[in-house]
Amino acid sequence: MDDIFGIPAPLLFGQLLLGLINGAFYAMLSLGLAVIFGLLNIINFTHGAQFMMGAFVAWMLLNWLGIGYWWALLLSPLIVGAIGVVLERLLISHLYKLDHLYGLLLTFGLALIIEGLFRNYFGSSGLAYRIPEALSDSWDLGFMFLPVYRGWVVVAAAVMCLGTWLVIEKTRLGAYLRAATENAALVQAFGVNVPRMVTLTYGAGVALAAFAGVLAAPIYSVNPQMGSNLIIVVFAVVVIGGMGSIMGAVLTGFLLGVIEGLTKVFWPEASATVVFVIMVIVLLVRPAGLFGRA
Amino acid sequence: MPDAVLDRAAPAEAGGNMLAVRGLQAWYGESHVLHGIDIDVNQGEVVTLLGRNGAGKTTTLRSIMGLVPKRAGSIRFEGKETINLRSDLVARAGIALCPEERGIFASLDVTENLMLPPVVRPGGLDLPTIYQLFPNLKERANSPGTKLSGGEQQMLAIARILRTGARLLMLDEPTEGLAPVIVQQIGRTIREIKARGFTVLLVEQNFRFAQTVADRHYVVEHGKVVDMVPNDQLASSMDRLHEYLGV
């Protein structure tokens, strides 16, 4: 159990775990993007900034108010989601009848403004957020050490993705959401307040990004760029999985994280580009994405 | 002739006025589609809108439902003005639309499609009654909505709005493109729901079908109501109608 394909086992498993963790973030973020795109037809480029805000709000709660990790996991998504609701009402809601490009430009501009504000106030060197005590141990798995927090991130992300999928596929609210994604005017004519549902969906997608941000805070340093570094890959994930497919976004997120991790082991130089190479291939072979409906 | 004036008024014995549309105008973008529609529908009646393609029948239903953004005039439902209401509020007031394209959702199964419209008032049909009227829907409960046959999809589209407690059901060409045996079944269904006290406003091209279910017929031409024929006078008005409809 020392070498696998000539690679030391701890290195292989270490990168596999790292890949799974990155995949967990890809999955959560692309899930939110897919939900928002499905109903609002908006490509939410602010998503990375909202992920970053989730981490910062957790940091502020801890350092300014003494509110710890577990409460932050609940409060930060609520706060950032509420800010998302305000953004949707004030700005984004005016763009639904226009071309995608306008939504993209607006949300991209918002992302730049938000990141600029945080950089101005907090600088760009990054802040530390301590791993909560209950999760600060490591488990000896025999072939490697697994930091408990990293395992927790993968499990929490998987549960969150599964929960979101269940809500969308198995509940009445999810049926409204799926139906409105197909034909919003008709769902509204049945008596559903679709504009409110759209606003809350955007808020929920943003809250999901913020939740991922809180999970990320103890792993990555909390800094204003943490979202924009991630979001580029996440958009590639969404394109590969297929815009608007919930399960597709989740599975592709985890899968690409793992592929990226394995590439780091077998061909480190390619690890930063492998996702984009896959994106090109998928676009050539299946332009609607792996799980997308053409 | 005073009779002709009386003809236009709704028959008094059919119950109180439920829907009164006056001078309804509607626009799609720049094009002016309705030029002043006047119709009355009484409680418990089945009323049809007849007319050629493009006359404005579907637009009339969509305007009543609040689905045409630019509209003017007056639509009073149970005495309440609804011309400026958003479509979800029109639905909550008790009007339901079964659209021409049926609007069955592909990503929902049959049961989810059936249960989708929220109940807006008490008094809708319960599930056992609906399954009794449309046994096919029970057998296909877990199929994706759009995997049903055209006739089954139409049944689903009608069944869906019977549950909600809406009192005025607007059906837009429910028989379009369906086999005669299905058309008969839809006819039976409309008579059945009328017997249960629902009020129906029906858009039809197939006027042989219309005369088997309706109490009165409005003729729509170029975005206006040009005539009203009670069903019992249909035979004597045949020549006039043929001229309107060009059949």
Automatic annotation (TrEMBL), chain A:
Q: Which CDD domains does UniProt cross-reference here? A: TM_PBP1_LivH_like
- A cellular-component GO term for this protein: plasma membrane
Keywords, A to Z, come to: Amino-acid transport, Cell membrane, Membrane, Transmembrane, Transmembrane helix, Transport
**A single GO molecular function, which one?**
transmembrane transporter activity
The protein's topology relative to the membrane is: Multi-pass membrane protein
Superkingdom classification of source: Bacteria
Q: Which residues cross the membrane?
A: 12-35, 42-62, 68-87, 99-118, 149-168, 200-220, 232-259, 265-285
What's a GO biological-process term for it?
amino acid transport
Could you tell me where this protein is found in the cell? Cell membrane
By sequence similarity, the record places it as follows: Belongs to the binding-protein-dependent transport system permease family. LivHM subfamily.
Name it.
Answer: Branched-chain amino acid ABC transporter permease
